[in-house]
UniProtKB/TrEMBL annotation:
It is found in: Nucleus, Nucleoplasm. One of its GO terms (cellular component) is chromosome. Residues 744-754 have a biased composition (Acidic residues). PANTHER family: ATP-DEPENDENT DNA HELICASE Q5, DNA HELICASE RECQ FAMILY MEMBER. Gene3D superfamilies: 6.10.250.2460, 6.10.250.3140, P-loop containing nucleotide triphosphate hydrolases. Residues 767-776, 806-829 have a biased composition (Basic and acidic residues). This is ATP-dependent DNA helicase. Its EC number is 5.6.2.4. Keywords: ATP-binding, Cell cycle, Cell division, DNA damage, DNA repair, DNA replication, DNA-binding, Helicase, Hydrolase, Isomerase, Metal-binding, Nucleotide-binding, Nucleus, Phosphoprotein, Zinc. Pfam families: DEAD, Helicase_C, RecQ5, RecQ_Zn_bind, SRI.
Length: 972
């Protein structure tokens, strides 16, 4: 057999001998034809001959599956040159040629020996009858699957169409199969055997080690001039220094077309003729460049990875990677194009961390795209990342490069014998790594690339087809009809993803202030929730801790370690489950309120003294209205970093609640005490950043230099608001006189009404009516809102809905009994009417039900309690109809926080109010107080939601808390 094989080798291929014993053994095994065969041999080992020679010797036709048309073409041309009948059926074949081939295949004794097809063609319905016919007539001698690693999803070049070959195998019973690859680690080998349904195959696997290849890695960014460095490498590799003729040629691989052009230009400029080769060139130009390189007219081809597969050039003296290869397997294959003649050759990678980041991004993007397409993740998705990481390790390791490659492919450590930079000079490799590490730390700190990794995906070969698989432009499927549509979709997906990434990467996160070293928060550095600052979280933590303290009993130190760690857990729980800053804050408040609901009622004295002192220090509200069952909407918003008036802008602590502002006298009187307490606390053993911040609040509030002037200004504003002039009723006295005539007309001119109101709502009669119906103070507030919204308030649209709903839920959740938890039960009861002063009784008669009698509403917006405490109507008395004036008065009372000093808070509010009154006028029927109240409530609710949506917390503070609920109630 050996003699006849050798003779055939000589006759058909012109080789005297087999290239190796292995090659001979494989050929013999295939020729025997009793077993499937698996071949894993290094690049250039002569694998093709392993099926070509048996194909020539067999009677029938050998079907060869090959991934690329270009590769097929090379092989077919090569065989034709050897006068071996070979051809290919593919989508690019002219119809005439295809007919001829099919005619030959259909004949009783076909002349063809080798038929090359792509995996896509295997599945083509037009080819199926031909294949079945050949098989039925016993004319298929072998099935050869070249580049068989493409069948494995663990492989670096997975091609889904290769999976169809399993089906092909079942359709070709009795046809021996030969699978060939150069790059198959153990898991890939196993996968190949399974996918191709190889039955107990004979495996011929040789170590990947190629002793004639010298590997090294150069950190590109550390070079003063990388092109000069590359030029020197080229000259050395091609022995151009000696001035003699070049010894062979070389390949430089780049990832981008642009890089190909640049490198080729630079090398040529430096004196070595180099040409670029990439998919951006016309097909003719590409062929020409390849041809010139093959002939040695062009010494260096600077190409994307679309070049090389199937290019059979023996004297490639070097392969340089200007950019990182996408996996170690790919790198082995690409670099393996050097030294196919067995002579010493160089393989160099110019490594760059930035390049690594870009490729990493592309690979993950590609994985994401695939997952999106198939709708699920796969275990094998990891393979691309693992292989890429292996490539990075190859560059970054202080180890033998050959050993790294061998280990990757599951081989034993080879005897490198100085065939890599590490084995030659480990110190130099270490020095380079150390220098690179220092450099990367510096550059990381200095710069942040714009966009994802600061690169332009469109410039990459992967821009259209994933991460650098440009060679698959020449896939069989590459020219299909719906290719345009697919590409459009791909582009659209890419665009969407890019936009998503940019959106996610933008914004206030850049301003994220990192936590202090002693910050007790868990995941303190996390920026998962946009716009949620560490300070806000710490403040929430302090609220929780305080609530816990109240929950556990007032005797304990509110800042003890147990409550702190418990609060930390609680806070973290909320943090983890919240999607946005507002939801987080609302959830914290809910927790605080729940705890307070179930807290044991402390002795009032304690509350008044100790806890009240803490209250000042912590800027929270142990004994405040919060404990009375009212968490005002302003408090929900007060968790946000806020500015509480011009004087507070520079305040070191941003967390100052409206309550504090409303209690200037209390603060002033206790300022020194609190301040001294803070000093004592600071020196105490139980220290935490929360406490420190709490003290800082007290200090900042108490400091006359910092807050005195500003607070008084703000307080003045609030005090003015608290007076809450209701002179609007005067209008209704006037208005009533107009009422009859309007009722007669039964038609109200809303605009006219608006005009009348705008006169009333303008504090200064000189004020231009066009300058909005706002007081100067309100205008100031709005400008502040605007400023704040520019910096802080960026809400992702779909979050808005969710937040609104969540806040709505929180507001509508039946809250605790409005009985003050820190008061004895009887104390908390509303006083009997008989015990009330006449004024209070009078007030109560015309007010909406008291909060205490409406548990469900207890924690809603804290409107004027004077309004809410009224309405204890005699049970059996029929409801009296109200006059329009009374109705307006009721509504105005409900609007009280939004309507001060004869002015409305905003235009929207004014309009709603005007609309409501015009509705009353238009309707012309009398109604009971209850009806008016219900309508007023509905109006308020509507207004509340609109204000909630569009105004800042500061506005809320100003508008909604002009009267301290507690203060008024205490007065009562
Ligand atoms: N017995 C032989 N004697 C001399 N040259 C040979 C022999 N067998 C193959 N060759 C030559 O070796 C070169 C490499 O062969 P081939 O292309 O089949 O390698 P390969 O293992 O398929 O490489 P790759 O994995 O890169 O495709 C070719 O030029 C081929 O003509």
């Amino acid at each position: 057999m050996t003699t006849s094989l050798k003779a055939a080798l000589k006759t058909h291929f012109g080789f005297e001998n087999f290239r190796s014993k292995l090659q001979e053994d494989v050929v013999k095994a295939v020729v025997r034809g009793d077993r499937d065969v698996f071949v894993c041999m290094p690049t250039g080992a002569g694998k093709s001959l392993c099926y070509q020679l048996p194909a020539v010797l067999a009677e029938g036709i050998t079907l060869v599956i090959s991934p690329l048309i270009a590769l097929i073409q090379d092989q077919v041309d090569h065989l034709k040159n050897l006068n071996i009948p070979a051809c290919s059926i593919n989508s690019k074949l002219p119809a005439g040629e295809r007919r001829l081939i099919l005619a030959d295949l259909g004949s009783s004794s076909p002349k063809l020996k080798l038929l090359y097809i792509t995996p896509e063609m295997v599945a083509s319905p037009s080819f199926q009858p031909c294949l079945t016919d050949l098989c039925t007539r016993g004319l298929l001698s072998y099935l050869a699957v070249d580049e068989a690693h493409c069948v494995s999803q663990w492989g670096h070049d997975f091609r889904p169409d290769y999976l169809k070959l399993g089906g092909l195998r079942t359709r070709l019973p009795g046809v021996p199969c030969l699978a060939l690859t150069a790059t198959a680690p153990k898991n890939v080998q196993k996968d190949i055997a399974q996918s191709l349904k190889l039955s107990s195959p004979l495996s011929f696997v040789t170590p990947v080690f190629r002793s004639n290849l010298h590997y090294d890695v150069i950190f590109r960014e550390m070079l003063p001039n990388p092109y000069v460095h590359l030029h020197a490498f080229v000259k050395k590799s091609l022995a151009l220094d000696a001035g003699s003729n070049a010894q062979g040629c070389g390949i430089v691989y780049c990832r981008t077309r642009e890089a190909c052009e640049t490198v080729a230009y630079q090398l040529t400029k430096l004196g070595v003729l180099a040409k670029a080769y990439h998919a951006g060139l016309k097909a003719g130009d590409r062929t020409e460049v390849q041809h010139e390189w093959m002939q040695g007219k062009v010494l260096v081809i600077v190409a994307t990875i679309s070049f090389g597969m199937g290019v059979d050039k023996a004297n490639v003296r070097f392969v340089a990677h200007w950019n990182l290869a996408k996996s170690l397997a790919s790198y082995y294959q690409e670099s393996g194009r050097a030294g196919r003649d067995g002579l010493p050759s160089s393989c160099r990678t110019y490594y760059s961390p930035k390049d690594k980041e870009q490729l990493n991004f592309l690979i993950r993007q590609e994985i994401g795209r695939r997952q999106e397409k198939r709708g699920s993740a796969k275990e094998t998705d990891k393979a691309a990342i693992t292989d890429f990481e292996a490539m990075v390790s190859f560059c970054m390791q202080e180890a033998c490069r050959h050993a790294t490659i061998s280990k990757f492919f599951g081989d034993k450590t080879p005897n490198c014998a100085g065939a890599c930079d590490y084995c030659r000079n480990p110190k130099a490799v270490r020095a380079q790594l150390e220098k690179a590490s220092a450099l990367s730390t510096r550059t990381e700190a200095q710069s942040k690339p714009s966009g994802p990794f600061g690169f332009q995906p469109g410039l990459y070969e992967g821009g259209r087809k994933g991460y650098g698989f440009e060679r698959y432009d020449e896939w069989e499927g590459g020219g299909s009809e719906d290719d345009g549509a697919n590409r459009k979709k791909e582009f659209s997906d890419l665009f969407k993803n890019q936009m998503k990434m940019r959106k996610a990467g933008e914004g206030p996160r850049e301003d994220f202030a990192p936590p202090d070293a002693d910050c007790p928060l868990r995941e303190a550095s996390s920026q998962r929730i946009p716009r949620l600052t560490v300070k806000a979280r710490e403040h929430c933590l302090s609220l929780l801790q305080e609530a816990l303290h109240g929950h556990q009993g007032a005797e304990e130190d509110p800042f003890n370690c147990d409550t702190l760690s418990l609060a930390v857990d609680l806070e973290h729980e909320v943090f983890k489950s919240s999607k946005s800053s507002n939801l987080y804050k609302a959830a914290v408040l809910k927790k605080v309120s729940e705890m307070k609901k179930t807290a044991p009622a402390p002795a009032r004295g304690n509350c008044d003294n100790e806890a009240e002192a803490k209250e000042e220090a912590t800027a929270s509200s142990s004994c405040s209205d919060e404990l009375q069952g009212f968490t005002s909407a302003s408090e929900i918003y007060s968790m946000k970093r806020k500015r509480v008036g011009a004087g507070q802008r520079g305040s070191s602590n941003p967390f100052v609640t409206a309550k504090e502002l409303l209690k200037p006298s209390m603060l002033d009187s206790k300022g020194t005490e609190s301040g001294s307490e803070s000093n004592t606390d600071a020196s105490s053993a139980v220290t935490s950043c929360i406490r420190a911040r709490a003290n800082a609040v007290a200090a900042s509030l108490n400091s006359p230099t910092k807050t005195g002037k500003a607070l008084s200004k703000k307080q003045q504003k609030l005090a003015e608001a608290a007076k809450s002039s209701r002179n609007i009723s005067q209008y209704f006295v006037k208005k009533q006189t107009m009422e009859k005539s309007q009722e007669e007309e039964m038609e109200v001119d809303e605009e006219e009404l608006d005009a009348t109101f705008s006169h009333i709502t303008t504090a200064d009669p000189q004020e231009d009516s066009k300058s909005q119906e706002h007081s100067p103070e309100l205008i100031l507030v709005e400008s502040e809102i605007e400023e704040e919204s520019k910096t802080d308030v960026i809400i992702i649209p779909d979050e808005v809905e969710e937040e609104a709903l969540e806040l709505e839920r929180l507001q509508e959740t039946p809250k605790e009994s409005t009985t003050e938890p820190n008061k004895p039960a009887e104390e908390a009861k509303p006083p009997l009417i008989s015990e009330m002063s006449d004024d209070v009784k009078a007030n109560r008669e015309s007010s909406p039900p008291a909060k205490r009698s409406r548990p469900a509403d207890g924690r809603r917006v804290t409107f004027n309690p004077n309004v809410q405490e009224r309405a204890l109507l005699p049970v059996n008395e029929p409801p009296k109809p109200v006059t329009l004036k009374e109705a307006a008065d009721i509504v105005v009372r409900y609007l009280d926080p939004f309507y001060t000093q004869g002015k409305f808070a905003n235009k929207e509010l004014f309009k709603s109010f005007a609309r409501y009154l015009s509705h009353l006028l238009a309707e012309g029927r009398s109604r009971s107080k209850g009806q008016v109240k219900a309508e007023a409530k509905a109006l308020i609710k509507k207004l509340f939601s609109s204000v909630k949506r569009c105004e800042s917390e500061e506005d809320w503070m100003h508008l909604k808390r002009p009267h301290s609920c507690k203060t008024t109630e205490n007065k009562e």
